[in-house]
Amino acid sequence: MQLPTILTLGLAALLSSTEVLATHQIRFTNKCQRTITPKWKGNGETKPQAGPALKTGGKYTATVAEKWVAGRAWGADGSCSANDGAKCTLFECTFSNVGFNQCNISRVSGYNVPMAFAWVGEPAGCQGGKRCMSSSCPNTVAWLPPDSCNGCLSQCNKAGVDMYVTFCPN
């Protein structure tokens, strides 16, 4: 057997046994009548990442890992913590296994803006998104303090799925 053939077969074997790591996009849209800066963190990160300050109608797309555990995103507007989203309305999501994802809106640490999320393209195997329009939205659409959720989770059994997160949805 020739050396190039052996190398080609070896490379093919290596590639077939290597896990392909996909990513997820979080597509932020600001429909608030004030500037909002999208921030997010997950996988035990202590400092959040941030997109640009979005004026009304502004959009920004963030990319997170396929395995993004205990992820959270929020719209910073100066009324809540810049580092962890405390006192903010939170979008929480775990992409822990390829093809099993679950997300929710949380008011556990506070509320600062109305928020909605949805799976991009509403793929088969994905439940509908959620929308929390006020600081009194029910536990069917948002996780409430101290620990109350009655159908507030949305699951999606598809790998590499992307998310829409909208601040002040219509």
Would you spell out the secondary-structure blueprint of this structure?
Blueprint: H1 3-17, E1 23-30, E2 37-41, E3 49-50, E4 59-65, E5 68-76, E6 90-97, E7 100-106, E8 115-119, E9 130-132, E10 142-143, E11 154-156, E12 163-167
Parallel strand pairs: 1-12, 7-10
Antiparallel strand pairs: 1-4, 2-3, 2-5, 5-6, 6-7, 7-11, 8-9, 8-12
Estimated share of beta-strand residues: 35-45%
Number of helical elements: 1
CATH topology: Thaumatin
Count up the domains. 1
Q: Tell me the CATH architecture.
A: Sandwich
- Which series of helices and strands comes N to C? HEEEEEEEEEEEE
CATH homologous superfamily designation:
Thaumatin
* CATH class wording: Mainly Beta
Strand segment tally: 12
Oligomer: single chain
- Given as residue ranges, the uncertain stretches (5+ residues, pLDDT < 50) are 7-11, 13-19
Helix content: under 10%
- Summed over residues and divided by their number, the pLDDT gives a mean of 87
Radius of gyration: 19 Å
Shape: globular
**Sheet bearing the most strands, described?**
7 strands, mixed
What class would the helix/strand composition place it in?
mainly beta
**CA(first)-CA(last) distance:** 66 Å
